[in-house]
Amino acid sequence: MSAKKIAIMVDEMYQVLEVWYPYYRFIEAGLEVNLVAAEAKKQYHSKEGYPCVSEVAAARADAGDYDCMLVPGGFAPDFMRRDAEVIQFANDMVNAGKVIAAICHGGWLLCSTDAYKGRKATCFMAIKDDIKNAGAEYIDAECVVDGSLITSRKPDDLPAFCTAVLDALK
Fold it and tell me: Would residue 105 show up in a list of annotated catalytic residues for this protein?
């Protein structure tokens, strides 16, 4: 795969599998992966306490440098959408037509963008009304691809989710 760059968004209480499974799968595929958060060089903890250190602050992240933004679930997206710079970076990625991938509760961040308007998407069932209110047609499926928007429901969907992201970046 040609050199592509992915921003995986992180914050407190992230879902550990939804960060680390794609992180290592994408590195194995030859992609460059950055952990992007409200603050750079800060340690964030998963719901289970597993740490990760962000590499890039959202305020310094440039959508032009990335081919894809991946938003994992857990409670992290609720924290992400409280930060104006994180929302700005997400909006910049959406408006630039980049590949936008969200799994589980990751869709919460996208509700603060125009990512769902007129699109089909899935998510963890508890936030389906949120994505519908943000303009999506909710589909209960392992992975939904609608143009540059790729969504999945839960960690069990990670194989199909990551395959769809890699296919979109070819």
Answer: yes
123 catalytic per annotation: no
How many domains does one find in the chain?
Answer: 1
Alpha-carbon gap, residue 160 to 146, rounded angstroms: 14
Instruction: Please identify which of the residues 45, 52, 68, 104 carries the catalytic annotation.
Output: 104
Average of pLDDT values for 118-136?
98
Q: What percent of the chain has pLDDT over 90?
A: 98
Tell me: the pLDDT tens digits for 39-97?
A: 999 999 999 999 999 999 999 999 999 999 999 999 999 999 999 999 999 999 999 99
Domain hosting 83: range is 5-161
Select which of 105, 123, 143, 162 is catalytic.
Answer: 105
Class of residue 139 by CB neighbours under 10 A (exposed 0-12, middle 13-18, buried 19+): middle
